[in-house]
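Obj: model holo form, ligand = DLL.
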Amino acid sequence: MVYDSVETAPREELREIQDERLRATVENAYENVDYYREELDERGITPDDIDGVDDIGKLPFTTKEDFRDEYPTGLFARDMSDVIRIHASSGTTGKPKIVGYTQDDLDVWSQAVARCLVAAGVTADDIVQNAYGYGLFTGGLGLHQGIEEIDATVIPIGGGNTQRQVELLDDLGSDVLTCTPSYSLYLAEVAEEMGTDVHDLPVRLILFGAEPCTDPMRYEIEERLGVKGVDIYGLSEIVGPGVSIECIEAQNGLHIWEDLFYPEVVDPRTGEPVEEGEEGELVLTTLAKDAVPVLRYRTGDLTTLDYDTCECGRTAVRMDNVTGRADDLLIVRGVNFYPSEVEDVVLEFDEVAPHYRIDLHREGNLDTVELTVELVEGFEGAIDDLHGRIGTRLKNVLGFTPDDLNLVPYGDIARQETGKIQRVYDHRGQ
Ligand code: DLL
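Output (holo structure tokens):
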């Protein structure tokens, strides 16, 4: 089932739509955003130089710093009187990135999320408990309007309030839950503390997003909750949730709605396009946004693109699950690794629960890594042996052994009830 026939359109047809919309987007940016006009003028480019996506390389990148420099509304192409909603990115440092939407923009966004929901197998008969935060974060309202768009029932509970969430899931029979992967685990723990067997809850499907989730983590969650987990991706600067999603049929990459968001993958160091299928940084250009048209946004997210038609019939390109950002890379004493690689390794061990944190310290001139991992509930095995095996595996796979590897009892790592989970704590600058 597809929501919109464009999802399965032949790629040549899609290309025509993209070309036309890119021209309109560049025109809008050039005519209405001083920042873009100056950037294009500096390069001697006018909208007439852009015939279609083959010319996209002529356009400048936009970065998160550009959003910050142009704070609050310097990248807006419309007056506030035409903007009917504001959202902001959930950045942890510095000024938030502010974005705005016209009514048309909100309609496009609803359509994008509706396509996602249908691709994930959600229907008008489903009851969807939306546990993404409402407010400036795009998660809550973004999912909300898509759920309404497909005529499903939305329960707009938002983030937190976990006991109430469990009660409502049960009492209202919600069969779909939308939340971050880490929150679904927290919800399972609270349910169990309340004496509810999570497998008895009516939820069959969770739409995970807003934070990375490795495959082993996803399988842990699916098993723990007895659900199917589908990955949904997006970012405020481009629209919010709804840029891409896995289809329930194949779950083999996330379909990007390419008539709305044009994807490229570039080498994060040089900005040059990578070969098809190679990993790099995802760059997105909006093709149907009026209030904040964004040219070649450097998302920071690492992925690959696969243009083969999916077994679900969609022709829309698939991006790989994002498990890391270019700026997540940890470099400790000459060894480079991503937190997701640590997650991949530790979750291989059945004795370990899906809760961990990485602390980086500086002792003198030396950087050290402390890795804390929870043991499964009721662990009774030989802890020294496990310690040795995890250490060896990390050494073999990532090329380093943490200076401190703490295996702590289940529940020892503080849980986070709202927002995106933080797993890396860098104390080196303190
Ligand atoms: O997190 C939008 C969203 C809400 C997506 C709900 C999905 C569900 P921002 O707060 O602007 O927007 O953060 C965007 O979060 O650049 C990625 O680094 C990360 N991210 C979002 N979805 C995923 C995902 C929302 N499925 C930033 N997997 C992005 C991994 C994700 N990372």
